[in-house]
Amino acid sequence: MVFKVGLLGLGTVGAGTAEILLNPALRHPLLQEIEICRVGVRSLDKPRPVTLPNSVLTTDLAAIVTDPDIDIVVEVIGGLEPARSLILSAIAHGKHVVTANKAVIARYSDEIFDAANAAGVYVMIEAAVAGGIPVIQPLKQSLSVNRIHRVIGIVNGTTNYILTRMQREGADFDAVLADAQQLGYAEADPSADVDGLDAADKIAILASLAFGGRIKLDDVYCEGIRGVSAADIAYADRLGFVIKLLATALREPPTAAGDSADQLQVRVHPTLLPKTHPLASVNDVYNAILFEGDPVGQVMLFGRGAGAGPTASAVVSDIQNIVAILKTCGGNPPNLHPLLACIHTHYCTLRPMEELVTRFYARFLTHDMSGVIGRLGTCFGNHDVSLESVVQTGYKDDLAEIVVVTHDVREGNFRQALDELRGFEAIAAIPSVLRVL
Amino acid sequence: MVFKVGLLGLGTVGAGTAEILLNPALRHPLLQEIEICRVGVRSLDKPRPVTLPNSVLTTDLAAIVTDPDIDIVVEVIGGLEPARSLILSAIAHGKHVVTANKAVIARYSDEIFDAANAAGVYVMIEAAVAGGIPVIQPLKQSLSVNRIHRVIGIVNGTTNYILTRMQREGADFDAVLADAQQLGYAEADPSADVDGLDAADKIAILASLAFGGRIKLDDVYCEGIRGVSAADIAYADRLGFVIKLLATALREPPTAAGDSADQLQVRVHPTLLPKTHPLASVNDVYNAILFEGDPVGQVMLFGRGAGAGPTASAVVSDIQNIVAILKTCGGNPPNLHPLLACIHTHYCTLRPMEELVTRFYARFLTHDMSGVIGRLGTCFGNHDVSLESVVQTGYKDDLAEIVVVTHDVREGNFRQALDELRGFEAIAAIPSVLRVL
Q: Burial of A295 by CB count in 10 Å (0-12 exposed, 13-18 middle, 19+ buried)?
């Protein structure tokens, strides 16, 4: 049997995908039954890193998603449109879809999976999260027997690279970002990465799968790493922490009051992480996702989160999984595979950030007046914020620098205390407020 | 639809498996369609941590594997017999099999998978390697699109616990082993763990899947951790290494001479690992497996390698995967799923250890005679062993202690040099010889 693939896009990931499919030796023999039938590109003249017959290339992407010969459409053009419309059209024409497009899936998974279920086709998204690391498929097919409590990921390679270099070199954000842009590790417009938007897309997708419900992307709290300074990294280091951009999804245990089981936290923000934590040693462009579930405990998946090769590995594994099912059932099966299809349709409720209970790190610049630490402590105490440590770390210009780490507190209380402190004459500035795991 | 499971064994893992299946809330809804139909135990009177109807328990295990009502037999009794015979009988009676039994699979996978393919059933083994870490299934279903070069695992929790404590406490092997036995982390007869036999079973299974061929367990080189001393751990630490029991499977690149593609190395031995290596920070009872493939690069999977909960998670995920396929195809499908069934039948050729090319660490005790280091260096040079460092680390009793680290050398050459050195008057003893990654 030969299964026919239509590839939308022949950029980095598209070329990597073609490379694997055109060179099946020493890979799983099932790949020999997969053929690249059409490839949609923007321009026919551009030089390509892979050699494909001219007859395969076309600029008419709409013709690929409607081609009756094609079994599986692979969307690797990225961006919201025309990717979304092409995916929906492919589904409407009975094609299975494999996509690396986290932005489309995080925003339009409801209509896409509704359409896929109605058409009886698969939409596979391994490559949309954490590149080459098998994470979607182990989550669906292995870890889903667990009650997942929490998913914590380092899912953006660019920010992890920047934070790692800031840590190693004692350098500030702007300098490292500029260098990362020169080296090609960061985009000219770095916002999607450094402001946490890319990580928010990915954790929304992971949360949806881990907790079996839909997530509205707008509800996901998102804070990037622009506010992380070399000073904070140095103080965190002294306190036994590293700073990482963590994407977290958490199902809160049901309370006696009878909360719904779907009260979730889904958030992206820089976080102080104990150096002994499994994610603390994930450096450079590497990604890792830590799952905590009952009864499996902690499981961490680690690898390269981006790049042609890793992402293509994920894309082709999805193609191979679809082909494997079609082969098993001898054609289109009567039912969708219940672990690979998306079966939930309700929306999860996300807890507002002010209700989050977490530890905080805050750095204050204060005028060197007597009793400042006492007034800080009193103000926090009035707002039910219990402090783990208060350390005057030194002077900066004429100001004393004080670093505070709290015990677990309600975020709303902590923010109220900070607002009150900002009005104190002795407090010149509060340059950093970070959460602590 | 309800799928019926017959469970062989209700010990730690069996009880953990039942616990998940009896409490499906907040797990994948597919689990609600799985029913524990019969449970085979040695004694009906023993108190159990899970509550099952009396009618379900039986001491007649043979009756379970032949019961026409049962779809899936789960073997968690362990040991070679009667586990092997029960598995073969279940297959002969058309049951799918899920097993956590690494010893049976490492020794009898040929007859078991031949029988399973002939009968058109699955034998699923996620729980046989690395407990709760999804590793078999990601390897088969995700990473198999890659050309896998190498698999390196810390796959035995007991030895990792012992080595971690030796490292932290500066303690010697015997003392930590005795304590680990008292705490229940090591068996009264610790041989399977500390002599590397358990790790050898697991790497044989992983090698077979990663490289698509059968492995004769007798060909797997196996060296345990009894010879690792506190002194070696301390010297390794100074040189920038930790010592871990690594299980390695490696496909050698084809040479110009036209080697077969299946020239493999499969071996278990304590290894000096650079502290910056992703496996170096895997401590205590945790396991991790690092895959290196083209084009995915490095992927590491980390978690708990043993215990009721993690192992039960793996067992139930296998059950769930079988049920998912049966449901998809609306009953027994016409073909076995090509990624879940075992499709290879040839045997791989393993490279003899003397042909291994690796770095070595060796510790010598020498009489304090002038020119000893010179004679060491000359002897190694005569055998084509190039040295990276030679350090006289101190004195032990009346003897000088010298630690040597080589560049990559052929193991056979290194061994010949050691044999020659043992005859030197100046060399009192060579207490440690370890490989370096």
A: buried
User: With contacts defined as CB-CB under 8 Å, which chain A residues touch B330?
Assistant: 333-335
Find the CB nearest B31 among A31, A145, A278: A145
At residue A31, what is the residue type? L
The average confidence (pLDDT) of chain A is 95
Query: Which ipTM did the prediction report?
Result: 0.95
Q: Over the stretch B340-382, which tens digit does the pLDDT of each residue have?
A: 999 888 999 999 999 999 999 999 999 977 788 999 999 999 9
Provide the shortest C-alpha distance from residue B95 to chain A (in Å): 18
Q: Does A264 touch chain B (CB under 8 A)?
A: no
- Look at residue A257 in the predicted model and tell me its pLDDT: 59
Catalytic residues of B: 202
User: Mean pLDDT across the stretch A2-24?
Assistant: 97
Token reading at B1: 């639809």
Ramachandran sector of residue B297 (left: φ over 0; alpha: ψ -120 to 50; beta: rest): left
- The answer to whether the CB of B140 falls within 8 A of the CB of B208 is no
Q: Is B396 helix (H, G, I), strand (E, B) or coil?
A: strand
Amino acid letter for position B399: L
CB proximity A334 to B under 8 Å: yes
| Cα(A101)–Cα(B212) distance, integer angstroms | 32
DSSP character for B120? T
What mean pLDDT do residues A354-370 have?
A: 92
C-alpha to C-alpha distance for B9 and B87, rounded to whole angstroms: 13
Segment B227-247, tens digit of pLDDT: 999 999 999 999 999 999 999
- Does the predicted TM-score (pTM) go above 0.90? yes
Domains and CATH numbers, chain A: 3-132+308-344 (3.40.50.720), 136-304 (3.30.360.10), 354-436 (3.30.70.260)
User: A350: which residues sit within 8 A by CB, 6+ positions away?
Assistant: A215, A216, A219, A220, A264, A265, A266
A183: its two tokens = 């080296």
Is it the case that residue A106 has pLDDT exceeding 70? yes
